[in-house]
């Protein structure tokens, strides 16, 4: 049986009397910690062999407490570490054998106060496939196609997605729950590209410099300018909302 960490979704609340849960009841429990989770996502994880609920004679899924805990553990590894399903499966298999293995550092660090300066760039991380991106965001294929058609999410040459793409996809999915569709985000995308162009203009001379130290300084300058741009954008949005709503 999976030895999941304490504090996961479902601990102390699910089937205290030993009864099995329907997939809808499981969804309600998981949504406290994972608001993006969907029934299709749970079914996908089952199809991938990461959880094995019981079946009634009529074919309905029934989940035990350990199944809910296992799902929570899987969702946490996807959300916090961007691990592909193959790695998650190996991790769960090791836990089932009583051989816990360390997880990498979380891919999403807690938000930093941008006044402290620009964040360090993410180390080259794991890339995930299309099906794993859909599972991580709770989106369906049609939604992902729309995101890609508007240039919000772009796969790499190998068809996989990096950590930045996963983060963008999650944000787009969250905005979608408020009724904002990809077509509404075209202005945001265009503004980001313009801001990136301004940063590029500033650092381009540094990158062309003959001095290696000056060229290396271009990267840190770009990060600092990007952080300042994010701060300005946030301040301008907040100011505009204050004028319009209050």
What class would the helix/strand composition place it in? Answer: mainly alpha
**Would you tell me the overall average pLDDT?**
79
**What profile does the largest beta sheet have?**
2 strands, antiparallel
Give the CATH architecture of the largest domain.
Orthogonal Bundle
Taken from the alpha-carbon principal axes, the silhouette is globular
Share in β-strands: under 5%
Identify low-pLDDT runs: 1-16, 107-124
Give me the Rg, rounded. Answer: 22 Å
Which fold name fills CATH's third level, the topology of the largest domain? Multidrug-efflux Transporter Regulator, Chain: A, Domain 2
- Please tally the helical runs, counting DSSP H or I stretches of 4 or more residues: 9
Please give the share of residues in helix.
40-55%
Arrangement of strands in the largest sheet: 1-2
Tell me the count of domains. 2
Report how far apart the termini are. 54 Å
Order of helices and strands: HHEEHHHHHHH
Query: How many β-strand runs?
Result: 2
CATH class of the largest domain: Mainly Alpha
């Amino acid at each position: 049986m999976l030895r999941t960490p304490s504090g996961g979704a479902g601990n102390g609340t699910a089937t205290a009397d030993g009864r099995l849960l329907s997939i809808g009841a499981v969804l309600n429990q998981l949504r406290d910690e994972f608001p993006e989770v969907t029934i299709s996502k749970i079914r996908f994880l089952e199809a991938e062999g990461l959880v094995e609920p019981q079946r009634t004679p009529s074919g309905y899924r029934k989940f035990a407490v350990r199944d809910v805990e296992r799902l929570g553990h899987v969702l946490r590894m996807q959300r916090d570490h961007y691990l592909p399903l193959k790695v998650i499966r190996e991790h769960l298999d090791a836990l089932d054998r009583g051989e816990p293995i360390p997880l990498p550092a979380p891919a999403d660090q807690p938000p930093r106060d941008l006044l402290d300066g620009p964040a360090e760039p993410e180390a080259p991380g794991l890339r995930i496939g299309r099906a794993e991106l859909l599972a991580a965001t709770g989106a369906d294929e049609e939604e992902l196609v729309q995101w890609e058609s508007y240039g919000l999410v772009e796969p790499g040459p190998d068809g996989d997605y990096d950590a930045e793409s996963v983060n963008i996809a999650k944000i787009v999915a969250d905005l979608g729950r408020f009724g904002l569709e990809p077509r509404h985000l075209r202005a945001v995308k265009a503004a980001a590209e313009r801001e990136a162009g301004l940063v590029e203009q500033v650092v381009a001379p540094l990158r062309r410099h003959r001095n290696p130290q000056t060229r290396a300084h271009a990267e840190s300058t770009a990060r600092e300018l990007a952080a300042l741009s994010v701060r300005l954008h946030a301040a301008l949005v907040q100011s505009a909302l204050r004028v319009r709503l209050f």
